[in-house]
From TrEMBL:
Domain of life: Eukaryota
Name used for this protein in its record: Uncharacterized protein
Organism, scientific name: Ceutorhynchus assimilis (cabbage seed weevil)
Chain positions covered by the region annotation Disordered: 49-68
């Protein structure tokens, strides 16, 4: 029994036709496990059409192929991809929310630190103002005490001079009395 098969392959991009033929001879009486009596002969013939460089390669119109794809596989694949994408999107969203929460907490801490520094500065400023007010007040008190002492001394001096004047006027002599009073400041 002689088997001969020809395989016709066409390269659609370059429009090359390749024919592969094989010759196998088998005897029906021989067991199938024995090697064939003659070796397999492969003959390759390739035909390349002559292409005009100005026109380009001719295009062949091919009949549409039968669609033998499993139509449910893409749906399952899409559903799985959707679930994976959904989980990753949820994870990304949670990470973003955590980052935003962390930034919000950082800003809150920074605001608290700035508020604390502002309160410390206000406290120091008020303390300095109070110290200045206290020194001014103590200085005014010291000046008032000094003035009151001077006034008291002048009063005593005037009284002593008046007593002297009374004593001298009894004798009959007139004394010119000059009293110097310090002006108030």
């Amino acid at each position: 029994m002689k088997l001969c098969s020809i395989i016709d392959l066409t390269d659609h991009e370059t429009s090359h036709e390749i024919q592969i033929s094989t010759n196998n001879e088998h005897r029906s009486n021989e067991p199938e496990t024995l090697p064939p009596s003659k070796p397999t002969i492969l003959a390759l013939e390739a035909e390349t059409p002559k292409i005009n460089p100005e026109k380009g390669a001719p295009r062949k119109i091919l009949a549409p192929r039968k669609n033998r794809t499993n139509r449910t596989a893409p749906l399952w694949r899409n559903a799985l991809e959707y679930l994976d994408n959904k989980e990753s999107r949820e994870e990304i969203l949670k990470n973003r929310q955590l980052n935003l929460e962390g930034k919000r907490i950082e800003l809150e801490n920074r605001r608290l630190v700035l508020d604390e520094q502002r309160h410390e500065m206000d406290y120091i400023e008020r303390k300095e103002k109070l110290e200045m007010e206290k020194t001014r007040f103590t200085q005014e008190m010291f000046e008032r005490d000094q003035k009151s002492k001077i006034i008291e001394q002048q009063h005593q001096l005037i009284q002593s001079l008046m007593e002297r004047l009374k004593k001298t006027s009894k004798r009959g002599s007139h004394v010119l009395l000059k009293i110097y009073i310090l002006p108030r400041v």
